[in-house]
Protein: ABC transporter
Amino acid sequence: MQRDLRLHNVGRRYGLRGPWVLRGVHLTVPPGTLIRVEGANGTGKSTLLRLLARLDAPSEGRITGRPRTAYVPERFPTALPFTALGYLTHLGTVHGLSRPAATRAAHEHLDRFGATAHARTPMAQLSKGSSQKVAVAQALLADPELLVLDEAWTGLDAAARAELERAVAERTAAGTAVVFVDHDPRRLAGAPDATYTVHAGGLDRRTGQESAPPTGPHTTVVVQGPRGAGLPAEATRIATRTDEPTPGIHRLTVPASHSDIVLRALLTARPPWHVVSVSQETPDPSEAESRR
Structure:
């Protein structure tokens, strides 16, 4: 059974007498949660994510819980003796797929992120953007219970960035915990369940509004539900705003990149919800600023 990942009074430093990068960190990552980590450069964000991914061990304290974990760094190592397709196929077999199934899954993930043209390109010859697409694909191929993204959007083109946002929404809706760092404050705006700031070697949870209001395109979905039914949990978690203008009619505002996830949750609910209308808008920047 999947368990929460917990950091208990964790500290990390490099070398026996090196300065502490992190110290006294307590953090719980329950299944299905989306957590954003912020902080200035050099404060220890990447160190925290490497601890969560079990790539580094704490110098003090302990980490409990062992969800199946996938990790995407900002810069993926490319000096590997594989083509992009060969690498993903190999990983698929490591994760227990038959070779034909692993090959199919590798093709599907490369296609999803627009990297099919580079399937047979040696990893060492891939551009930064193409290698990052392979990095994202290898993480999703693992069907993780915990997905750790350290500036994973860096280098991706606009279509791939949007696709990764959709993948995050899909994974959290399916019960995967996702912890991410990104330099763009608008990334997944309105979606995180919690936002933490790394500061002076410690970790502080932001109180009040957990994330910035959405400043990119968003979708307004108006639905009519079964009598007495509440909105599906996946829909309310992703929505940045919900209201009920008339009894039984609900209006949800969601990031445009997540609208398909919300619609799927509504239409596959039992009994399903009736979608009255779907419209897309780009918020007025001055209006978004006034809400800060």
Notes: Helices lie at 45-52, 84-94, 99-112, 128-141, 158-173, 233-238, 259-267, 285-290.
